[in-house]
Amino acid sequence: MSEGTMRGEGEPGETQVEPAVPHHARRFDDGTDLGGEAPSDVPAASSPAPRVQSPFSPDEEDLVAPLTLVLVRHGVTEMTTSRRMSGSGVPGPALSGQGRIQAAKAADLVYGMGRRTWMHLPHVTRLLASPMVRTQETAASVGRRIGAHVETEARIKEVDFGAWEGLTVAEIIERDGDAIHAWRRAETSAPGGESIAEVGARGYAVVEELAREHAHRCMSGRDLPRGVALVSHAVAIKSIVGVALGMPAAHWGSIWPSPASTSILQVRARKDGSIAEQHVLAVGVPVE
């Protein structure tokens, strides 16, 4: 939910790490050198991209190569550890010392995708982040590690908690009774702020836009798998995952991405850019 509030919403998911498989040196997407290892579905520069078969699509030939979205939650802040609501109504807070360490570990995890883990996935070569201080700082660590500049995307910012900003759950209950639980069930908006459903709508619009852009690039002659990291927040990430799974908004609170964790969404777009299917490969994979 908020920055560490309501940890009982769910536990971080676990992912099975694919065994490393050696590959000949290849290049990915816009010429990025992969060195001696590469995802198995990335073609050599001199050969056409192989068709990646989907087990569910009725018309595989209408699909472009997969797009992998890595949703990274920022590291902890003082608000996280004090279990206070920290939304998008104010720019801060910044990462704490522990949060900066977590951000560095998350950056290494993102860099390792397609190199040390998840060998069937492409390297992450593009990076978007919420405009909040904590996500910009986390994204800066990721960007340095993967060699990408940070693109600011306001639609993946945290929920606006309005009048609840900075309060604990106990303080909200004392002030507004059961309203916080009605908000969690997607029955209402935070006073002066947003509802969970509103966060899901704006966040998933980014997924749809990235799918369209990816399909356009594929149809322009570079039909290759691509990876994009989105550095965001707990409510924003769980809302995007909830929409992708087709879950009612009332159940999104059961998804819990812990601080600095990664969640992975693979999108299969049609040639016209619309989304044909999507697969949630992991939710809330924690840093060690």
Largest pleated sheet: 6 strands, mixed
Low-confidence stretches: 1-51
Mean pLDDT: 85
Oligomer: single chain
Order of helices and strands: EEEHHEHEHHHEHEE
The CATH H-level homologous superfamily of the domain at 60-161 and 198-285:
Phosphoglycerate mutase-like
Structural class: alpha/beta
Radius of gyration equals 19 Å
Q: What is the third-level CATH name, the topology of the domain at 60-161 and 198-285?
A: Rossmann fold
Record the strand order, biggest sheet: 5-4-6-3-7-8
Portion of residues in beta strands equals 15-25%
Pfam family, one: His_Phos_1
EC number: 3.1.3.-
InterPro entries: His_Pase_superF_clade-1, His_PPase_superfam, PGM_Phosphatase
Biased composition (Low complexity): 38-55
